[in-house]
From TrEMBL:
Enzyme Commission no: 6.5.1.2
Gene Ontology molecular function, alphabetical: ATP binding; DNA ligase (ATP) activity; DNA ligase (NAD+) activity
Gene3D superfamilies to which the protein is assigned, alphabetical: 3.30.1490.70, DNA ligase/mRNA capping enzyme, Nucleic acid-binding proteins
InterPro entries cross-referenced by the UniProt entry: DNA_ligase_ATP-dep_cent, DNA_ligase_ATP-dep_CS, DNA_ligase_OB, NA-bd_OB-fold, NAD_dep_DNA_ligaseB
Biological process according to GO: DNA recombination; DNA repair; DNA replication
Full protein name: DNA ligase
SUPFAM superfamilies according to UniProt: DNA ligase/mRNA capping enzyme, catalytic domain (SSF56091), Nucleic acid-binding proteins (SSF50249)
Catalytic activity: ATP + (deoxyribonucleotide)n-3'-hydroxyl + 5'-phospho-(deoxyribonucleotide)m = (deoxyribonucleotide)n+m + AMP + diphosphate
Domain of life: Bacteria
Keyword DNA damage assigned: yes
Keywords annotated in UniProt: DNA damage, DNA repair, DNA replication, Ligase
Cited Pfam families: DNA_ligase_A_M, DNA_ligase_OB_2
Length: 271
């Protein structure tokens, strides 16, 4: 039984200004940290009154969804199943919510931004709240203590084998802060980033008469490179416009800091 009266709860009187963002894993010692699956959905922050994207835009969830949310802050991903990002985004970012479609959306909560306690305390508090206030869609993200780095990478292999995106590892005693933190990291088999399309190249052979590849400039490094794989036949026939921001994955960087084996993932939607 959790002695709630001994936990210090900071009541959310206004929306917090920014969200805690992940950094990439490098070679940190992860022993004693906690790990969970990284859900490829739409980041959503509930401040006790409004549901917003990571950029602070209102998410127009149905009133039945909002009614089940607590009066304290939550941070998590709106998600349905692995490999359904485009479907999730089309549902969640629609200004006119489809109540039937939203029935498939789960709120995978991994943090309580205004709670003064470690990660285990936070998740235990939310578990007890849900035991008293059952929800059909709020889910507590399972956190597992990491024995050592091999344990974390074995878990990563397990998630990837099930078509998951990757995992998140974090220091369970780290405070929730605004911006990127080296206390919460993402591990993936591939890296990913975003780039802006600056040119569309005609295809050859089987892709003659359609898009073959695109020239891009990474929005962070400003490095220019080409992406020719990962596109569906439909996208090749109807390519995105020049200036569109897309998300891509790659294995690592070359000596010239260009992404090695870049692969198109999706068009970045507004949040």
């Amino acid at each position: 039984m959790i002695r709630i009266c001994l936990l210090i709860w900071l009541v959310c009187s206004s929306a917090f200004s920014s969200v805690m963002l992940l950094k990439e894993y490098k070679d940190e010692n992860l022993t004693g940290w906690m790990m969970s699956e990284k859900y490829d959905g739409v980041r959503a922050i509930w401040d006790g009154k409004e549901l917003k994207s990571r950029n602070g835009n209102i998410i127009n969830a149905p009133s039945s969804f909002i009614a089940q949310l607590p009066d304290f802050a939550l941070d998590g991903e709106l998600w349905s199943n692995r490999g359904e990002f485009e479907l999730i985004a089309s549902i969640v970012l629609d200004k006119n919510p489809d109540m039937k479609a939203w029935q498939n959306i789960k709120y995978m909560v991994f943090d309580l931004p205004k709670f003064d306690g470690n990660l285990s305390d936070k998740m235990a508090y939310l578990e007890e709240f849900l035991s008293l206030n059952p929800s059909s869609f709020i889910k507590v993200v399972k956190q597992t203590y990491i024995q050592n780095n091999l344990h974390a990478f074995a878990f990563l292999d397990e998630i990837v084998s099930k078509c998951g995106e990757g995992i998140v590892v974090r220091d369970p005693n780290a405070s929730y802060i605004s911006g990127r933190s080296d206390k919460i990291l993402k591990l993936k088999k591939w890296n990913d980033s975003e780039c802006q399309i600056v040119a569309i190249n005609n295809g050859k052979g089987k892709y003659e008469g359609a898009m073959g590849s695109v020239d891009c400039v990474d929005i962070f490094s400003k490095i220019k490179f080409k992406i020719g794989s990962g596109f569906s036949d439909e996208i090749r026939k109807n390519p995105p416009k020049i200036g569109t921001i897309i998300t891509y994955k790659f294995q690592n960087l070359t000596n010239n800091n260009k992404p090695r084996f870049p692969v198109f993932l999706r068009i970045k939607r507004g949040e």
